[in-house]
Amino acid sequence: MVDIESDGPIPGDYSMICFGAVLVEPGLERTFYGQLRPISDKFIPEALAVSGFSREQTLTFPEPTEVMNAFADWIYHLDIDRPHFISDNNGFDWQFVNSYFHHFTGRNPFGFSSTNLGSLYKGMVKDTFQTFKHLRKTRHTHHPVDDAKGNAEALLTMKQQMDLKIRL
What we know:
Number of domains: 1
Number of helices: 6
Helix content: 40-55%
Strand content: 5-15%
CATH topology: Nucleotidyltransferase, domain 5
Mean pLDDT: 96
Structural class: alpha+beta
Order of helices and strands: EEEHHHEHEHH
């Protein structure tokens, strides 16, 4: 489960500021957190404010190549046959993670696909007006590890209490 924060709507023109990942398993103890120096001079103050960081703070963050390589190593050491990217807004989160992996490491350990947690839940309950957010236990704080944990809790609930067939 992955969540990101950025300073704008698209990678390249804007930057991924930080991200978090949680291996979806009981206990949710294996996590990754990365902060990244901006790759562009452009930023939208309101978008950056969601992350809780100032522009000055982000300019002191590590280089994206260092962080993305560390993330790839973390994924590799999880010893999963085929890691799968799941997010509550994969259209947004995936575009940044995929772009950064390809740009800074040359490949994306997740491959070329992702899953949207909200869409999965809507399909399970057969109602496109429903949301999974009531299944979170961890408060949604916009710290990406907290948000990824809450989403992972929801996915575990979907598996354990709603009979979702998923390999975790």
